[in-house]
């Protein structure tokens, strides 16, 4: 990770007061992130943590900064930088508050404000209704990912072009969680967003339900919480069923391990069988050689005995 002061100098800010305030804020963000995530908590994003903290500091102080320059200073590709920045926004609590009207105005479709609100309200109601009674009181839809998904699906239905990077990056939303919420919202609100309800297996449905329960905070005390590091490192693709893809990967990994173990056992068994055969052949050949040697010695002894007997008979005559 590069020094934040060095990165701030590269921005070329003219006012010394702005430089000092941005440096101080960025250094504070770096310390907080290290304290809350630990060393290496961002994975590959550790390389660009300093640059991402500088950008967040500029946003917090209202200082104009070149985002492309900061991304180059981070030394990583665009996807890693975006994921690291989104994770830092969550950890530091600097996610900007946005409304459906703000997003509609930003992307030039103010007339769809009511449609976005209706879609989000319907999703909240239907999702809560699908939960067990115990979990309904713990649901939290305040995260920006739900608003972003509702706006994106309504805009897509009305053929409004939306740049997903510009939509997700300011809100601190990763591509993985956005794809999961979009998939769930497309199923529960297919009548409002103009999509067909997908046919899914029970295992896939249960896994998606668990992931969304983790994101809404409705998990029981015994439920397993979602892993923030997976959200940061998983590059995910919008529109794909992430959970089904992960399930297939796990099944393939389990099948591969089984095949490798079976192959190793078969090789070991074949090697043992081959060794036994070689040992048996060696014993048999040794026994055969010993028998031939004994028979030759017996023949020689008999010949010597016959010769000695012939000599004795000739000497007696």
Automatic annotation (TrEMBL):
MF terms (GO), sorted A to Z: DNA binding
UniProt GO cellular component terms: nuclear origin of replication recognition complex
For the keyword Transport, the answer is no
- Annotated region Disordered: where? 294-317
Low complexity bias (residue ranges): 300-317
The ORC6 second cyclin-like domain sits at 99-188
Which keywords belong to this entry? DNA replication, DNA-binding, Nucleus
ORC6 first cyclin-like domain location: 7-94
Sorted alphabetically, the Gene Ontology BP terms of this entry are:
DNA replication initiation
Give the superkingdom in one word: Eukaryota
The protein's location, in the record's own words, is: Nucleus
For this chain, the family text in UniProt reads:
Belongs to the ORC6 family.
Its protein name is Origin recognition complex subunit 6
Q: Organism source for this protein?
A: Chlorella sorokiniana (Freshwater green alga)
Task: Supply the source organism's classification.
Answer: Eukaryota, Viridiplantae, Chlorophyta, core chlorophytes, Trebouxiophyceae
């Amino acid at each position: 990770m590069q020094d934040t002061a060095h990165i701030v100098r590269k921005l070329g800010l003219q006012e010394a007061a702005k430089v000092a305030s941005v440096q101080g804020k960025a250094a504070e963000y770096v310390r907080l992130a290290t304290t809350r995530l630990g060393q290496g908590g961002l994975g590959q994003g550790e390389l660009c943590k300093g640059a991402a903290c500088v950008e967040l500091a500029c946003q917090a102080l209202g200082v104009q900064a070149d985002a492309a320059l900061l991304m180059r200073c981070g030394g990583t590709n665009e996807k890693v930088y975006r994921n690291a920045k989104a994770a830092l926004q969550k950890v530091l609590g600097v996610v900007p508050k946005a409304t459906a009207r703000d997003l509609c105005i930003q992307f030039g479709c103010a007339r769809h404000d009511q449609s976005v609100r209706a879609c989000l309200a319907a999703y909240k109601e239907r999702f809560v209704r699908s939960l067990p009674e115990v979990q309904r009181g713990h649901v939290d839809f305040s995260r920006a990912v739900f608003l972003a998904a509702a706006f994106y699906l309504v805009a897509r239905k009305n053929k409004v072009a939306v740049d997903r990077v510009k939509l997700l990056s300011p809100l601190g939303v990763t591509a993985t969680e956005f794809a999961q919420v979009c998939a769930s919202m497309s199923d529960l609100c297919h009548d409002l967003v103009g999509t067909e309800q997908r046919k899914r297996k029970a295992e896939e449905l249960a896994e998606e339900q668990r992931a969304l329960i983790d994101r809404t905070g409705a998990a029981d005390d015994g439920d397993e919480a979602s892993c923030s590091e997976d959200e940061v490192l998983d590059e995910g693709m919008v529109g794909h069923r992430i959970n089904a893809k992960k399930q297939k990967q796990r099944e393939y990994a389990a099948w591969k391990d089984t095949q490798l173990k079976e192959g190793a056992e078969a090789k070991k068994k074949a090697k043992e069988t081959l060794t036994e055969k070689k040992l048996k052949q060696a014993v048999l050949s040794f026994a055969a050689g010993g028998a031939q040697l004994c028979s030759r010695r017996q023949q020689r002894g008999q010949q010597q005995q016959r010769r000695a007997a012939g000599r004795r008979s000739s000497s007696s005559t």
